């Protein structure tokens, strides 16, 4: 069985709406079963990225706060499609 990649994306220095563009670009090139771990800054960015990811049909399997004082969060996404 082939090991699936885990991709890392740090968009903590990017601002909306470009944050969702960077995430979407990575998701578009992922294979089924691959994971993308996104580090981002700000509650608004977190909410926008989550909505975008879910709208596109991807699954968020983990969300955590990295640094509450600096508003850093991490969202882990997996590509699961039945195609």
TrEMBL record:
GO terms for molecular function: transferase activity. It comes from the Bacteria. Pfam families: TusA (PF01206). Keywords: Transferase. Residues 9-67 form the UPF0033 domain. This is Sulfurtransferase TusA family protein. It comes from Swingsia samuiensis.
